[in-house]
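User: I'm writing a short report section on ligand binding and want a predicted complex to refer to. Could you take this sequence and (3S)-3,7-diaminoheptanoic acid and write out the structure as tokens? A short remark afterwards would be nice.
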Amino acid sequence: MDIVTSPTTPDGNPEMADAAPDPKDPPLIRREDYTPFPWLVPEVSLDFSLGIDKTRVKSALTVQRNARANRSDVLRLNGDGLTVAEVLVDGEAVNNWSMDGGDLMVPLREDSHLVEVTTEIDPAANSQLMGLYASNGMLCTQCEAEGFRRITFFPDRPDVLSTYTVRMKGSKEDFPVLLSNGNRTASGEGEDGTHWAEWHDPWPKPSYLFALVAGKLVANTDTFTTMSGRKVDLAIWVREEDLPRTDHAMESLKRSMKWDEEAFGREYDLDVFNIVAVSDFNMGAMENKSLNIFNTKYVLADEETATDGDYDAIEGVIGHEYFHNWSGNRITCRDWFQLSLKEGFTVLRDQLFSAAMGSEPVKRIEDVRVLRSVQFPEDSGPLAHPIRPDSYQEISNFYTATVYNKGAEVIRMMRTMAGEERFRAGTDLYFERHDGEAATCEDFVTAIEDGAGLDLSEFRRWYEQAGTPKVSAKLEHAGGTATLQLEQSVPATPGQPDKRPMPIPLRVALFDRTSGKHRGEQLLTLTEARQTFDFPGFDETPVLSINRGFSAPVSIEREVADDDLVFLAAHDDDPFARYEAMQDLVVGHLRGLLSGSVDGARRDSGRAAIGEAFRAVITDRELDDLMRGELLTLPGETYLAEQMLVADPAAIRAEREGLKAWLGQTLEGELVAMHQRAVTAPGGMSLEAKGARKLKTQALVYLAAGNPERAEAMAAEQYDAATTMTDRQGALMVLTSLQGPQRTHKLLDFYKRFKDNALVVDKWFALQASSLHPKVLEQVKALADHPDFTLKNPNRVRSLYMPFTGTAQGFHAASGEGYRMIADLILALDPLNPQTAARFVPSLGRWRRIEPGRSALMKAELERIARAPKLSRDTYEQVTRSLG
Ligand code: B3K
Ligand code: ZN
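Assistant: Sure. The structure tokens for the complex follow:
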């Protein structure tokens, strides 16, 4: 473990590196200010007397001086909104303690002590959903990143590792099930209808991995036997009515446990593994040691209520949280700047798992789509930050696509450069070397270097520099040799005006035009700003296939003829490159139209090329339907906007919809036939069945643009015949964007069918909020007054307002009303749930990249938020960075 000895405050807590917080200007926490905590806390005992609106927490900490840190005679215990009932040191009540902001300061003279503190909290009043809170009558916790300090006073930082013993007592009727981390060691009956349980977790862990759940729950139980023969009891805890929808989650868990043994040699390390589903949750799920807490959205599924996408997401998130047991829990982060150490690596692990369970190429395409539509815009906007950030005001704002998804791409590049086997040697070494530690990204890179035998000295810049690198590629041909000229540049980002070149591994292949084949793929690593690579033995200019498999998270810029893209779309043996050629074809065409550089004749020839490529994809018998669905997907509006310095959302929408309509009309016959073929395909959860369902809705999407009446009738039929949520939701999505009578009928029917299922009602809100309907703004406004809408439930808030931020005619309405609506939401939500409120700021933060009229309106809304008399740290930081 690194010991850094830079100047610090007396207690060595990086949280206190700055002056006392002014609510309007929270202190900046800096990575370089890290110092170890002066005290170790090897053991913690917690004693909870549980009540929905009054819970008493008694903590007992054994503390010892940390020989590897600067000495301090005061123990700082972080607290957030806590009051002290009593403090004991070595069994004696003391009153020499003081408060510093929310923190409790306890003077200590000797080398080791027992410190006991009693506090009282009100879980029912906890609308932030951080710490211990009430959800649907049950009690549950969320501690990452800094929620534990809302439960009890503690050095709430990831490098303080302790073994926890937890005792809890509560009403047997209200809380029949009592869970915490580790193994249940004792339980019994108490007085007045109470009961109690004691749990002990033998694995030392930081406070962010603590969890407690108490409530009326039932379990789907099973067992898993690990590779060394340990029998693990598995349980997925839900409300009784949800029990029938837990089988997919259980299967996903068992598959995850098996896959981690096979792919990474990681075995589970306790006798129990519990998952609890809660309906009020700020994010997807949380990897607390042996007691994962999940948003219901990522647990509950059956074919009638969950789409194929939901099934895949559940499998992916269950895997992700389970994989954290090693990449996150056994080896945790030294400080929150190292977040990508666990998140980037775990995202890569869940991506590889999902790819192994389903279609590898389709999974890769989906991952790249997320990266491009969420992370690329983040990297080119005011909130850009390296995967290992240098500073923050509120760490919750750094659970980003950059830290997670770009973080995964960076590790994936190491894997590409090392090859699978050597990469595995690197991760084996990492797990062995740092087990039980709070590690850094640097530790990870060094372990991969040592274990895989790579030199990553320059590659480390990927951890330091923000911004998506641009690589321009030019292929020339002379004297029988093809020459590839590559040039890279990393754009300036806030606080980082100058960038240095980074090693960029690019998988390339050169195709012979006549045979349609290449002579083998090569991995080129671009290390300099400019480099050329020669390929002798070509009689004519070959066709370049570059960044195959999306081997590097960069944007490739090159002059390429439509014919070459059509060639690659039809011939490339790398499925991702085939998808990419289709995307490039469309992006190039729409970019030309949007920049006004293309006349009517070029519009027609561009469309003809795209139409031909689409027709070839629809009729290619070799393709599987899941992949066919991907190839028929147009680049999204956000990705298109990203291609322009300054974007006009209305123009992008109009050109993209224009192309869709043209394709719908030109290929009507083929699309109807494709739909009919898919309708007759067998059901079930095979990849073939999933592919057929994807195509059904895909066909309707184009037909709806080209021939709305026909599409309306077909979609209504698909809706009525649907036996799966995939078909029903797909049909309803298409109808919601149309203006015919079936829209109202089916929306009403859908609501009536599913009004008692909160997750499906979320879909009902989301479908309307994301629609292409011209009146989406009015519709969303009306939905906010719907009796089922509440600001208190994050899933509901996200389901209505997140999709809305993607609507050109709603969010980007030229009047500015959409922007105002989101700003009003942020202001209303901030006092209740700052974490969720702050998640909406980036949509307005794009203002610099939007045409001047709308840009001014977006900025004005950010300024209005900034003027609010009281803002959370979360929202304040995002708004000021977005304006800065
Ligand atoms: N580690 C948690 C995320 C916690 C977010 C805190 N704001 C879930 C995950 O990434 O697995
Ligand atoms: Zn994670």
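A remark for your report: The first helix runs from residue 247 to 264. The chain has a mean pLDDT of 96.
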